[in-house]
Amino acid sequence: MRGDERWRRHVHAATELRAAGLGRDAFAALQACTPLSTRCRVTMVEPSYAPDEQKAWLKDASNADDDNMKEALRYSAALLGELRTSLLSPQKYYELYMQACDELRNLEMFFREEQAKVRPHADLYDLVQHAGNIVPRLYLLCTAGACYIRGGEAPAKLILRDVVEMCKGVQHPTRGLFLRAYLVQVMRGLLPDTGSKFEGEEGGNVVDALEFLLVNFTEMNKLWVRMAHQGSPRDREKRDRERSQLSDLVGKNLTYLSQLDGLTFQLYRDVVLPRVLEQVVSCRDDIAQQYLMQCVIMVFPDEFHLGTLQALLGALPQLQPGVRVHTVLSLLMDRLANYAAGDHSVVAQMSGVDAFGQMSGVALKVVEQHPEMPGADVAAMYSALLAFSGTVYPDQLEYVDRVLQTCHNALQRRGPITDPRAEKQVVALLSTPLDKYDVVTVLGLAHYPSVMELLQPRVKREVATKIVQTVLLLFCPKQPRQLNRRCCCCSCNEAQHAKQRCCSVLGLAHYPSVMELLQPRVKREVATKIVQTVLRGGTLISSVDQAEMLFSFIAPLVRDMEGLQDELDEEDIAEDASLLARLVHQLQAPGGDSDAQYAVLQAAQRHFLTGGPQRAKHTLPPLAFAALQVDAATWYRFLHQTASELAAVPAAELALQLFLTCAHSASEEAGLDVTAYEFFEQAFVLYEESIPDSRQEVRALQSIMGTLNRCYAIAPEERAALCHKAASYCAKLLKRVDQCQAVLACSHLHWQPEKEGKQAARDEQGVLSCLKRALKIANAAQQQLAVAAKRPAADAGLGPGGLFVEILNHYLYFFDQGCQQITAAVLQSLLELVANEMAAEGCRDNEPLQAFYANTLAHIRQQKAKGGEAAARYDGLQVQLQPQRQPQARPFTALRQRQRQQAAGVCRAAAAGPPVDVEMARKLLDGQTVVLDIRYGSQSVFHRMPAAEYEAGRITKPPRRTVGVPFAAGQDGAAFVAQVAAQLPSRARIIVMCADGGQASEEAAALLAAAGYESVAAMEGGYQAYCQVWGPSGKRRPPAGRWVSTGKEALKSGLNIPGVAESYDEGGNLQQARWAKGLAPGETLPQ
Amino acid sequence: MVLVLCIGDLHIPHRATDLPPKFKALLVPGKISHILCPGNLCTEAAYDYLRSVCSDVTVTQGDFDESTKWPDTQVVSIGDFRIGICHGHQVVPWGDRDALAILQRKLDCDILVTGHTHEFAAYRHEDRLVISTGSATGAYSALSASDGGRRPTPSFALMDVDGSKATVYVYELVDDQVKVDKLEFTKRPSGGCGGGALQL
C-alpha cells in the first residue's frame, strides 16, 4: 500500500508541476533563472521521506558553489532520488522515470547555460559525481556527460566508454535498466557516427559508437534477464508481464544501432550481429530471446538479413524451447517475402543463398532440438514457412510439398493433435495453401493429406469441408472464381471453363483423401454433386488415370461406406447407382481408341464390382452397353464377364437380356457364330435356372425368340439346337395363352426375314408344325375356359378365342410370305374353324375379339383386292367376309310360336317343341322347368327302376323337380299321359328325359303335347348325355383333354371325381366343347 | 387439338446419360396433354421425368424396363383415334411391317406406336398408321448396329390430334441439330379401317 501511496504522491507532484498553469516556454524561462522553481521545490522536495544522505549531499552541493548550480543539483538529486525506489512496478516506475527525464532535460538546458557562463563541463562532470546516491549520481553523470560531449570539450569516445562503464554501478535490474535507457537516450545524438560532428581522431568513429551501444545493450539485456530471477517464483507470471513491458528499453539500443549512418553491411555482419546474437543466445531467457530476435529482424534492413541469413537462422535452433521460434521465423519470412515482392531481383538473390532451404533446415533443426515444443508452435512455424514459400516462390509447388512433408514428420512424432491451439494452427497451415493457390494445385500436393491425417477427425472434417467447398466452387460456374486465381484464362467460355475445371479437379491426387474426412453423408452429397457436374458439363473421362481418380472421388457412391449403410435405404442406393450408371457413358477414350476404352471400362468394372449386388444391378448394364458400342471382337470376353456378374447379383432377367443383346451383336456385328452360340447358351441356362416367375419367363422367351430370329450367323445345326430348345420352353409356360403365343413366335424361328448378304433360315415344315401346335394349344385353352365355367370377364381381352384369330393371322403371314406348305385349302379349313369359334358363345360378344376377327378378314379382303401374284394365291379362298352371328333356335319360343299358330287355326297338329340339348336343359332347370324322367330300371322294360337307383339318378336340384313316369317307345300313351297328368299340370314346362335320348323321349314329348301340355321338349342324348356334361351336383364335368395342373384346379372347381383327370385324352374334343355352350350374356329364358 | 408425345426407348441409364439437352429444352411441361411411351424407360427416374412433362403418361412394357408393372399393350382413345401402344420386342420378327400389322389388327387401333428398333419410322399400312418412335436418346441398339454400325438418330414424335386428323411432327437430332418433319394422317370417318392421305 505504501508504494501506491508514494506513487500517488509522485504523480501528484508532477501534475502539480504542470498544473501550475505555466506553459512549457514559460516554465523553461522560469527555470532558466531559477532552475527549479520554488513551487516545484515545495512540491517535489518537501516529502518527508527524503533520506538523510540526500540532505547531506544537498549540503555538499551548496557548499561547493554558491550560485544556482548548487540549488539545481540539489533539487535534481532529490528528484532523482525518487528513482531509487524498489517499490514501484515497472510501469509506474516508467512513468516516474518519464517525469524525471523531463526534469533532467531542463537540467541539461541549465547545464548548457552554465557552460556559457564559462563553467567548464569538466568541472560539472566532476561535480555531479558528488551526489551521495548512485542512482541520482549516475543520472546526473549521464546528463553532464552528454553536455560534455555536446560541448566538444571531451572526445565522445572516452566519455561514452566512461559513462557506460560507470553505469555498471547500478545492478538493480529495474533501476539499472532505466538508467541505461536514459543513457542511450541522451547519448543517441552524440555518438561518433560516420558523418556526425563528434567523429574524429579523438572522438572515435562508428566502431566506438557501435561499441557503446553494444556494451549498453549487453548490459541492459543482462539486467533485463536478471529481472526474471528476482522475487518469488509465485509472481513469475506477473513479472514476465512486467518484463515484457520493459522490452522496448532494451530494444532501443538495437534501434539506435540500426539508425547509425555508419553501419555498413560489413560491420553488421562482422560485429553487430555476432555480438547481438551471442548475447541473445547466451542469455537463455525466453522473453528476451523472443523479443530480441524479433527486434533484430524488425530494425535491421532486409538486405542485411538476406546477407546474414545463415547466421540469423543459425541462432534460432539455439534459442530456449519456450521461445516461439515460429513467430520469429514468420516475421523474418514475412519481411523477406515483402522484400522479394517489392523487388524481383531479390528473388534470384534469395535463390542464390537458398533461403527456402535454409529456413526449412532451420525449422527442422528447431523441431529436432526441441522435442518438447508443442505441436501448435511447430504448425505455426511451418505455416509461416509455407507463407514465405508461397509468396517468394509462388511457382515452386514442390517447396510447399516439402514444407508439408517436414511438418508432417515433425508433427507425427508428437502424436495426434488434440490441443485446440495446435488444431487451430494446423488448420491455418492447411488453409494457407488454399488461399495462396487454387485448390486444384493444393490437392495435387503429395503431403497435404498426410498432414491432415494428424488432425482429430472433427477438425479434419472442418478442413475437408473447406476444401470441398472450394472445389465445389470450381464446379459451380455461377460463382466468381476468386479461388482459382492462378489459372485464370478469361478468354474461354463458361462451358469450357467448367470442363477444364472438372478435368483439373480430377487431376487432384488427394482430393479423395480429403473427402474421406467428411461425414459419410456429406461425402455422398459431394460425390453426387461431382457426378452431376461431370454429367452436366458433358466432361469425357478419357484415360484410366482420370477414371481411377474420378472413382476414388465418388467412392461413397461406388461402394458401401462405413457409417452410411444404416442411413441409406434401397432407394437411395439405387439412386446413387443410377447416377453412376449414367456416368458410364462419359467414359470415352478419345478418338475411338479401343484399347484405351477397354482399359477405362475395365477399371470401371473393377470399381463397380466392389459396390455389391445392389449397385451392380444398376451399374453393370451400362458398362456392357458402353462396351457393345465399341466394335472389337475382344470385347465379348468383357461382356461375358459383365453379364455373368450381373447374373450373380442376381439380376437374372437383366443378365439374360444382356446375353441376348451380346449374342445378337456377336452374330450380326462381328459374325462370330461360336461366341453368339455361347451367349445364347448362357441365356438359356439363366432362363432355365434363374427366372423366377411366369411373367418374366414369358418376357424372357419373347426376347429369346426375337433375338434368335435376328441371328443369321449361327451355323444351321447349332441354330436348330437353339430353336429346338426354345420351342421346348414354350410348352412349359404356365398359361395356355402364353404357350400359344410363344409357339407362334417360335414359328418365326424357322422363317427368318430375308436379309442382304445373309442366309435366311427357312423351314416350312418347322413353321407349319409350330402353327399346328399353336392350334392345339388354342383348343386346349378354349376347353380349359369351358372347364373353369367362367364367362370371360369384360376386361379379359381377347380370351382364348383370340388365339384362333392370331393363329389365323400367322397362317396368313406365312401365306403372304410365300410359304408353300400353307395352301389355300389349309387356310380355307382354318378359316372355317375360326369362323365357327367366333360364332361360339364365348366369343360372340367379345367385342375386341370380333374386331380383331373383322380386321383380319378385312386384311384378307385387301390382299385379295390388291391384285397381282400375291392376290392370285387368295383366289381359292372362300371367305365369309363378315362374321355372322347365328341366332340360336330358342326352344320354347319356337314352341310358343307354333302354339300361337295353333290358336290362330293355322296349324292344328299338336307337336312338341324341338329337342333341347343338355346345355339348354341345364339352364332351363334353373328356372321353373321340371324333368319328366321316363327311364325304366335296368333289368327290364317292364319293371320299374329301383327307387334307390332312381333317386340317385335324379338330375335336378332340388330332386322334387324330377317326376318319374317310366315310358318306353310304343307303350300305351293314354296310361302314360294319365300318370303324368296326375302329377303335373298342363301349364308345366316339361323336359322329357329318357336313358339315351332316343325314340322314347320324343314319343313321350309328342304324346304330352298332344294331350295339351304347352311346353314340352325332349332332351337330346338323354340321361347319358346329360351326365357326361353335368355332374350330380349340377356342376360341369371337366372336358376331355390333358389336365394341365396337378388336379388342384379340378379340386377347386369341385370336380374331385376319382379318375376324371385320367379319362381325358390329349387333343381336346370339339364335340364336347360344343356341348358346353351356354346362353349368351343377357339372354334369358322366356317366361 | 391435343398434343400427344410419342417417346420411347430412352434406356437411361443403361445406354445413355440423359436425353439430349436440345430435346429436353423442347419438352417443356404444360404443352403436351398425353405421353405415349412404348417402353424401355428402364428406370423409375425416367418415368418420373416424363410425368414431369405431362402427368398423363401411358407406358407399355419394354424388354429392359426395371419394373414389370406395365402392360404389354395399351390402347388409348384420343380424338377419333384408337391408338395402340406396344414396345415391339414381343413382335417377331422385330420391326417387321406385316408382323406389326397383325398386332395392329389385334389391338384394332388406327395408330400403332411402337419402339424397340431405335429407328424412327412412320408409315401407312393398310390404311392405318404405324409410328416407330425411335430412341429419344439415340441409344445403342444391336439392330441398327448390325445394319451398318451407325448410332441411331435420337428421335421422338409429337402428334397433334384434331378430331379425325393427326399431324405427326418428327423430331430428330441430326448432327446436334434438331430436324423437324411433318406428316399428316386422316382417319376416314366411315369405317373402322379408315384410310387417309399420308404425306411426308
Automatic annotation (TrEMBL), chain A:
PROSITE patterns: RHODANESE_3 (PS50206). InterPro entries: Rhodanese-like_dom (IPR001763), Rhodanese-like_dom_sf (IPR036873), Vps35 (IPR005378), Vps35_C (IPR042491). It is a peripheral membrane protein. It is found in: Cytoplasm; Endosome membrane; Golgi apparatus, trans-Golgi network membrane; Prevacuolar compartment membrane. It comes from the Eukaryota. GO terms for biological process: intracellular protein transport; retrograde transport, endosome to Golgi. Residues 925-1035 form the Rhodanese domain. Keywords: Cytoplasm, Golgi apparatus, Membrane, Protein transport, Transport. Its main location: cytoplasm. GO terms for cellular component: cytosol; endosome membrane; Golgi apparatus; late endosome; retromer, cargo-selective complex. Belongs to the VPS35 family. This is Rhodanese domain-containing protein. It comes from Chlorella ohadii. The lineage of its organism: Eukaryota, Viridiplantae, Chlorophyta, core chlorophytes, Trebouxiophyceae.
From TrEMBL, chain B:
It comes from Chlorella ohadii. It comes from the Eukaryota. The keyword Glycoprotein does not apply. Keywords: Protein transport, Transport. Belongs to the VPS29 family. The keyword Iron-sulfur does not apply. InterPro entries: Calcineurin-like_PHP_lpxH, Metallo-depent_PP-like, Phosphodiesterase_MJ0936/Vps29, Vps29. NCBIfam families: yfcE. This is Vacuolar protein sorting-associated protein 29. Residues 4-162 form the Calcineurin-like phosphoesterase domain. GO terms for cellular component: cytoplasmic vesicle; cytosol; retromer complex. GO terms for biological process: protein transport; retrograde transport, endosome to Golgi. SUPFAM superfamilies: Metallo-dependent phosphatases.
